[in-house]
Amino acid sequence: MRGLIRELGVTEDACQRWGHGRVHAWRYARLGGFRKERYEVGPVNHRIARDWTIARHYSGSWPQVRLTYGLYDLWPHLADEEHGPEPDVLDLGMPRLVGVAALSVPQHEKVLPKTFAKLVPNEESLELGRFVVGPSVAGNGESEQSCAVRTI
Fold first, then answer.
1. CA 13/CA 29 separation, integer angstroms
2. Burial code of 89-108, b = ≥16 C-beta within 10 A, e = fewer?
3. Is 7 a residue whose pLDDT tops 60?
4. Structural domain range at position 73
5. Could you give the count of Cα atoms lying within 13 Å of 63 in the half-sphere of its Cβ?
6. Which of 37, 54, 128, 129 is close enough to 63 for a disulfide, judged by CB 3.0 to 4.6 Å?
7. CA gyration radius for the chain?
8. Is residue 5's pLDDT more than 60?
9. What's the predicted TM-score (pTM) here?
10. Distance (Å) of CA 81 to CA 76, 78, 84
């Protein structure tokens, strides 16, 4: 992977982001890292999460999802010019959805029981089916979102 990253001319502190229309961009932790106080992770409506993710995820698809969590920007007015508000978003001074984590049922029924033998598959154990963070989120935002989802 490191060879591919170097080949693409991307440094190791790069975080890939997906914007509206499935266009990717890079954010760099060295340019200003993630500020926890600016964001919040919480449940998001399945339909909203699905539509937001399909518009941005490279596959343009949605798996069989059980739980959806959003990363919300509490200060959307501070979005920078380069990675600022996406074209389909109005700034109403309210938290803005800038990331989605979707916990889903795996494609094959034996995936979870093999790894988590003591847990009830598709109830007590799920896989991370989709994980998308928008371009306005600072570097390392996906790590914070992932950690927050695991503690909810």
1. 6
2. beeeeebbbbbbbbbbbbee
3. no
4. 2-151
5. 19
6. 129
7. 16
8. no
9. 0.75
10. 12, 9, 5
CA end-to-end distance (rounded Å), the chain = 31
**CB neighbours (10 Å) of residue 54?**
15
Q: What share of the chain is helix, strand, coil (3-state, %, to 5)?
A: 25, 30, 45
Q: What pLDDT, in 10s, does the model give residues 127-140? A: 999 999 888 887 77
With contact defined as beta carbons under 8 Å apart, do 135 and 19 qualify? yes
CB under 8 Å to 94, separation ≥6 — which residues?
76
| Burial environment of residue 127 by CB neighbours within 10 A (0 to 12, 13 to 18, 19 or more) | middle
Domain count along the chain: 1
